[in-house]
C-alpha cells in the first residue's frame, strides 16, 4: 500500500503543478502524506500551507504554526478518502483563491512528524 500511496501523492502533486520537493510520505500505519502548497489562505496570510492525507481520513488543508512542528487543520475535503487527483487539486485551488475564510469542517491540531 505504501507504494500506491506514494504514487497517489505524486499524482496529486503533479496535478497541483508542484515539483514534489517539499512533499513526503510517512509509511508507518496509518499512511500519511504531506505536500507543501504554494500560496496562502486568506485567513492565514502569514502561514505556510500544506495538504495532508491519511489513509483513514483523506485530505485536509493545514497551516504551519511558526516555530512548531504542529500543523493546524483548517478544512477537510469530504467524500472519498482517495478522490481523483484533479478533485484534490481543484479543492485546494478553490481554498487558496477564496477571498473569505474557508469553511472549517473540523479544526484539529496534527502533532508529530509526517516523515
Strand content: 25-35%
Helix/strand/pairing class, anyone? alpha+beta
Helix content: 10-25%
Major beta sheet summary: 6 strands, antiparallel
* Shape annotation: globular
Mean residue pLDDT? 82
- pLDDT < 50 runs, ≥5 residues: 102-115
Element pattern in H and E? HEEEEEHE
Total E-strand runs: 6
Q: For the terminal residues, how far apart are their CA atoms?
A: 16 Å
Strand order in the sheet with the most strands: 1-2-3-4-5-6
Q: How would you describe this structure to a colleague?
A:
The structure is a single chain. This protein has 115 residues and is of the alpha+beta class. It has helices at 2-15, 85-97, and strands spanning 23-26, 32-37, 49-54, 58-64, 71-76, 108-110. A 6-stranded antiparallel beta sheet has the order 1-2-3-4-5-6, with helices on one face. Helix 1 (2-15) packs across helix 2. The two termini are 16 Å apart.
Q: Could you name the key traits of this structure?
A:
single chain, 115 residues, alpha+beta, six-stranded antiparallel β-sheet, 2 helices, 6 strands
Amino acid at each position: 500500500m505504501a507504494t500506491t500511496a506514494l504514487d497517489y501523492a505524486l499524482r496529486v502533486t503533479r496535478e497541483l503543478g508542484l515539483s514534489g520537493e517539499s512533499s513526503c510520505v510517512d509509511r508507518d500505519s496509518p499512511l500519511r502524506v504531506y505536500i507543501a502548497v504554494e500560496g496562502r489562505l486568506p485567513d492565514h496570510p502569514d502561514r505556510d500551507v500544506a495538504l495532508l492525507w491519511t489513509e483513514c481520513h483523506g485530505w485536509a488543508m493545514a497551516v504551519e504554526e511558526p516555530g512548531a512542528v504542529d500543523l493546524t487543520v483548517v478544512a477537510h475535503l469530504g467524500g472519498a478518502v482517495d478522490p481523483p487527483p484533479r478533485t484534490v487539486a481543484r479543492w485546494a485551488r478553490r481554498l487558496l483563491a477564496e477571498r473569505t475564510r474557508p469553511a472549517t469542517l473540523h479544526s484539529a491540531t496534527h502533532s508529530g512528524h509526517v516523515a
